[in-house]
TrEMBL record:
Organism, scientific name: Mesoplasma melaleucae
GO molecular function: 5'-3' DNA helicase activity; ATP binding; ATP hydrolysis activity; DNA binding
Protein name according to UniProt: Replicative DNA helicase
Entries under PROSITE patterns matching the protein: SF4_HELICASE
Matches recorded under CDD domains: DnaB_C
Family, as annotated: Belongs to the helicase family. DnaB subfamily.
Reactions catalysed: ATP + H2O = ADP + phosphate + H(+)
């Protein structure tokens, strides 16, 4: 029987069977408790009975017909469910705990289906009552759908035996490869050495003070990933697609960014170089979304589509604090924490690394040592916990010539020494990597 064909009567019978097994089989009880919650049951009486079973289990008490009856009587009224007779009637359905996994799955998916239908109704009512436009309605629907987690019931505990088998198999596969990188290459030697490339499922936070070069650095990562034939998605909340493309064009053509901004003083040789660069860039699998104020739900749905249609394997979000919340509470720190958690979940589900840019708080400016640390992350909240890698960009000359003096204007075209600080690396070493930043072309390079 397929899930979509299950009638209410059939579901009622399956729910009864699950409860009967729960009251008779200590072996099956842990699977039932971890696979379902009381609200997964359609019948209101079944909800009460299952909640009593959960309560008994949490108190380390034996689950029997009598103990369930006593627990219900203690919490409410046994007569409200039909008395002890109702429990005995349910218990009579027990023959064996065989097939309990299927019964749990059927109850779980029926519950998910009801949640989906309820979400549809809520959004439809909002459209009627509050006259929501189609964009707001889609945002609301995406927010509701995020609450329905079909993987919750599938996330099973894995034995160390199975983990070691999978690990050895992976190592054997890696041994056969000539390439040492296991993730997306950054083309920065020391960074690739430490990370083995940016790994699938990782949330990478890249933070710096304004004008330190974090967007340029992210574009370098995106360009280098695309050069290695990896599909790349860029969500730019601050800068339009045209400006991002211009920055990539500057990086590839090595023509002064001011010439591309103004269209003046471009020589014939540079025009030839520009057109050649255009041919290179236009072939890259880079996809830019410059929707201002995009929500994390919209990022999720667009990324799923890009993954499906273009096999996107790398994502850049510029930047975290500009992502809108669909359910504003006024507590921005809490909202940012929720957004970072959802970005981490998306990275894991799609199995791609997500590089998310972030601002630093102004507190760094008040210290004598202005090298950033993790507590400088703006609206940090859960960001430190969710991120697999936290990187900071730091340049001495940013502070030495920040006043915009003539000396700063002179060094604008120079290559600047930059520290890439890895403050957190969940699966490897931390430390500081010294790289070079060619400011006039927006390009980051290895030293030496």
């Amino acid at each position: 029987m397929s899930r979509k064909d299950m009638s209410e009567n059939n579901l009622y019978a399956v729910e009864k069977m699950v409860l009967a097994i729960a009251m008779h089989s200590p072996n099956a009880l842990p699977d039932i408790i971890t696979g379902l919650v009381a609200d997964d049951f359609l019948d209101s009486t079944h909800k009460i009975i299952f909640q009593a079973i959960i309560d008994l289990q949490s108190e380390s008490k034996e689950v029997t017909i009598n103990s369930v009856a006593n627990q219900i009587e203690k919490k409410s009224n046994l007569d409200s469910i039909g008395g002890i007779q109702r429990l005995q009637d349910i218990a009579l359905d027990f023959f064996s705990d065989e097939g309990i996994e299927n019964f749990i799955e059927e109850v779980f998916y029926a519950s998910s289906s009801r949640k989906f239908d309820a979400a549809l109704r809520r959004v439809q009512n909002l459209r009627k009552e509050e006259q929501l436009d189609i964009e707001s309605s889609i945002n609301e629907m995406q927010k509701e759908l995020l609450k329905i987690d079909l993987n919750a019931q599938k996330n099973e505990v894995q034995s160390i035996y199975k983990s070691t088998e999978l690990l050895i198999k992976k190592i054997q596969e890696l041994e056969k490869r000539s390439e040492t990188l296991t993730g997306i290459p950054t083309d920065l030697y020391d960074l690739d050495e430490i990370t083995s490339g940016l790994q699938e499922g990782d949330l990478i936070i890249l933070a710096a003070r304004p004008s330190m070069g974090k967007t340029a650095f992210a574009l370098n990562l995106a360009y280098n990933a695309a050069r290695h034939k990896n599909g790349v998605a860029i969500f730019s909340l601050e800068m339009p697609a045209e400006q991002l493309t211009q920055r990539i064009m500057t990086m590839v053509s090595k023509i002064d960014s001011r010439k591309l901004r103004t269209g003046k003083n471009i020589s014939k040789a540079e025009w030839s170089n520009l057109l050649a660069s255009k041919e290179i860039i236009s072939q890259l699998p880079i996809y830019i979304d410059d929707t201002p104020g995009i929500t994390v739900q919209q990022i999720q749905s667009k990324l799923y589509k890009l993954k499906r249609d273009h096999d996107v394997k790398f994502c850049v979000v510029d930047y975290l604090q500009l992502i809108s919340s669909t359910n504003s509470t006024g507590d921005r720190q809490n909202e940012i924490s929720n957004i970072s958690r959802q970005l981490k979940r998306i990275a894991r589900e799609l199995k791609i690394p997500i590089v998310c840019l972030s601002q630093l708080s102004r507190s760094v400016e008040k210290r004598e040592d202005k090298r950033p640390i993790m507590s400088d992350l703006r609206d940090s909240g859960a960001i430190e916990q969710d991120a697999d890698i936290i990187m900071f960009l730091y340049r001495d000359d940013y502070y030495k010539h920040k006043d915009g003096t003539e000396e700063e204007n002179k060094i604008i075209n120079q290559v600047s020494s930059t520290d890439l600080i890895l403050s957190k690396h969940r699966n490897g070493a931390t430390g500081t990597i010294s790289i070079l930043f060619d400011k006039s072309h927006g390009k980051f390079m290895d030293k030496g």
